[in-house]
Design a protein that fits this description.
There is one protein chain. With 228 residues, this protein is an alpha+beta fold. The chain folds into two domains: 81 residues, Anti-sigma factor, zinc-finger domain (Arc Repressor Mutant, subunit A), CATH 1.10.10.1320; 112 residues, Sandwich (Jelly Rolls). 32% of the residues lie in helices and 24% in strands. The strands form four sheets. It has a six-stranded antiparallel sheet with strand order 1-2-5-12-7-10, with helices on one face. It has a three-stranded antiparallel sheet with strand order 9-8-11, with no helix packed on it. Strand 1 and strand 2 form a beta hairpin. Helix 1 packs across helix 3 and helix 2 crosses helix 6. The chain starts with 7 loop residues before the first helix and ends in a 6-residue tail after the last helix. It holds the Pfam family Cupin_7.
């Protein structure tokens, strides 16, 4: 059961539909693994419904009803062909994409994990970039990161924000232990050196809106030359 939940403001923005696409994907994937965060989003949805009841009616186009009914039919067909996300959220010990990747991310990736364009970053660390796009001039970077047991990511802080969602295994840093379903949100105030635990490789979904800034003795020398 996850112990590091998404911040309330992120869940609220997700419920309102105001998150950009890559951040919404991270939160939706987290919700498939975290019952507590799902409960909060349902509460926000209920509050939003109550607020809508207090709004004055507004005129709509003549074809609005037909469009709404068509959308409802599509949603019903989709729900009949897809099981709830939670069904595969806790299939620990099975190492294929169908169990490791919750449905929102599995739909987005659309292929087996081994079919992704993995590249070696350093010994014990590899990553596969996913399409993220831009949002009002911000170039988001979305990727899967696979860390071998016992491997440490170089110490760093962040020029922007970094969302890290654990999908398999676990890692430890100065903030604590993060395992399957846990979400860490890090910014310039966080300086850490995540280290993967023994056992399964640590598989994470990572989203950043700016390069990292390395803070270790050797990493500081690299900052002028690399953007990661």
């Amino acid at each position: 059961m996850p112990v590091h939940h998404a911040p309330e403001e992120l869940l609220f923005d997700y419920a309102r539909g105001t998150l950009n696409a890559p951040a919404a994907l991270v939160i939706e994937t987290h919700l498939a693994l975290d019952p507590e965060s799902r409960s909060h989003v349902k509460d926000y949805d209920c509050i939003g419904g109550l607020l809508l009841e207090d709004l004055e009616p507004a005129e709509v186009s003549s074809d609005c009803f037909a469009e709404v009914m068509a959308r409802l039919e599509q949603d019903e067909e989709r729900s009949q062909t897809e099981a709830p996300d939670e069904d595969t959220a806790d299939d620990e010990g099975v190492h294929d994409a169908a169990s490791l990747l919750p449905r929102p991310l599995r739909r987005y990736v659309g292929k087996e994990l081994d079919g992704l364009p993995w590249r070696r970053v350093m010994s014990g660390l590899e990553e596969a970039d996913l399409e993220a796009g831009e949002d009002e001039g911000t170039r988001w970077r979305l990727r899967l990161m696979r860390i071998a047991p016992g491997t440490s990511v170089p110490r760093h802080t962040h020029k922007g924000v970094e969302y890290t969602l654990v999908l398999q295994g676990a890692y430890n840093d100065e903030s604590g232990r993060f395992a399957r379903g846990d979400l860490q949100v890090a910014d310039a105030e966080v300086d850490h050196r995540p280290t993967a635990e023994p056992g399964d490789p640590c598989l994470c979904l990572v989203l950043t809106d700016a390069p990292l800034r390395f803070t270790g003795p050797f990493g500081r020398l690299l900052n002028p030359f690399i953007r990661y």
